[in-house]
Design goal:
This protein has 352 residues and is of the alpha+beta class. It has two domains: 151 residues; 142 residues. Helix content is 40%, strand content 17%. The chain has ten helices and ten strands. The strands form two sheets. Strands 1, 4, 5, 6, 7, 8 and 9 form a seven-stranded antiparallel beta sheet that branches. Strands 3-2-10 form a three-stranded antiparallel beta sheet. A hairpin with a 4-residue loop joins β2 and β3. It is globular and about 60 Å long. The termini are far apart.
Length: 352
């Protein structure tokens, strides 16, 4: 079976094995593990460095889905805040002016100092300069990238990003390539030029919040709007947002266009987490007698995986007949999911 475009990172090169070396050596790689959620770079980062104590917080969140038209993206709710607001991660944002004044415009030295102090880095770089990217030496495309190590003898940085047909993979690039990629990014928004430093916290615990889960499930099912502190665009929420997918499918040119796989992989990962969440509810006594629900959500997860794989098949073969299969399967999945979410809400209320 061929390698799928999305999935877990499978380290193969010994240089990319997750381990940590003593400080102030010529090389150091911070710990990472396979991220089970990785549709976007920020999710891949979070799930790459998380520890098991984070699961209650994960289950409290990642329920509502929104479509952000300005980004053209389906995302988990509070997409931009999931890293910065995670209670288990220390998050610091450095403006580019500080890198210029304090590190003499050397991204390399900032990376060395940060990694030596056990900080991961998260920044934007132009993929034109980043190997493994489809844009490499072809077109300019500023995008997030995750830095978790370096090697001074080889003059390389260890990084990860959604580079291989959207798959979150680990790569090696030279310091110079990353410097070129970072300093070439221009824009009026500091979001593109700031460098973020991340470090997991060892002294934080977060309780599972059943009321928050219940409210989020209701918002997802009934497409209720999330009130943002700063609303920069009007988003669609929950099941109502999926209508855009059907519009895109109906507008496909015969065999000419490709289907963006990212929404369908996000929907699959959403169901993957929902399956884990329901099992957590049952195992921890929040949902007595909920075995049948766990089985149903597990089946739903598999159905969304099959749907995502149909997208892959269409993008490879461009067979117009697959469009109707995709549309019908998506409609069927949504109908089943709505019923299961409603049943889950009712079961939680009755168990309380």
């Amino acid at each position: 079976m061929g390698r799928e475009p999305f999935g877990l990172v499978k380290p193969g090169d010994n240089d990319l094995q997750a381990h940590e070396r003593p400080k102030f050596m010529n090389s150091k790689i911070l710990y990472t593990h396979d991220p089970i959620v990785n549709t976007y770079t920020t999710y891949g980062i979070l799930f790459s460095i998380m520890h098991d104590r984070m699961w209650p917080w994960i289950f409290n969140n990642f329920i509502q889905i929104r479509y952000a038209p300005a980004w053209g993206m389906y995302v988990f709710d509070n997409h931009r805040l999931l890293l910065s607001d995670c209670p288990y991660i220390a998050y610091y944002c450095f403006p580019q002016s500080l890198i210029i004044s304090k590190w003499n415009k050397s991204l390399k030295q900032l990376i060395i100092d940060s990694v030596n102090s056990d900080f991961y880095l998260f920044l934007f770089a132009d993929r034109y300069y980043i190997p493994k990217s489809d844009c490499y030496l072809k077109e300019h495309n500023p995008h997030e990238i995750f830095i978790f190590g370096y090697d001074l003898e080889k003059e390389i940085v260890y990084a990860a990003d959604n580079l291989e047909y959207g798959k979150f993979i680990q790569i090696k690039c030279t310091f110079q390539e990353l410097e070129n990629g970072y300093w070439s990014v221009k824009g009026k928004y500091t979001l593109l030029t700031d460098v973020r430093l991340l470090k997991p916290k060892d002294d934080i615990t977060c309780d599972f919040d059943l009321e928050q889960v219940l409210l989020s499930l209701d918002s997802y099912l009934n497409s209720k709007r999330t009130v943002d502190v700063s609303e920069d665009q009007k988003c669609d929420f929950g099941f109502d947002s999926f209508r855009r997918i059907f519009e895109d499918l109906s507008n496909l040119s015969a065999g000419e266009d490709y289907i963006d796989i990212r929404p369908f992989h996000l929907f699959y990962e959403h169901k993957l987490l929902m399956d884990m969440r329901v099992k957590y509810l049952v195992q921890n006594g929040y949902l007595p007698g909920g075995i049948s629900l766990t089985e149903s959500f597990s089946t739903l997860k598999d159905d969304y995986l099959s749907l995502r794989n149909l997208i892959v098949k269409y993008d490879v073969k461009k067979d117009p007949k697959l469009v109707s299969r995709i549309t019908n399967k998506f409609q069927q999945n949504i109908m089943v999911e709505k019923s299961l979410i409603a049943n889950l809400i009712q079961a939680i209320i009755q168990s309380g």
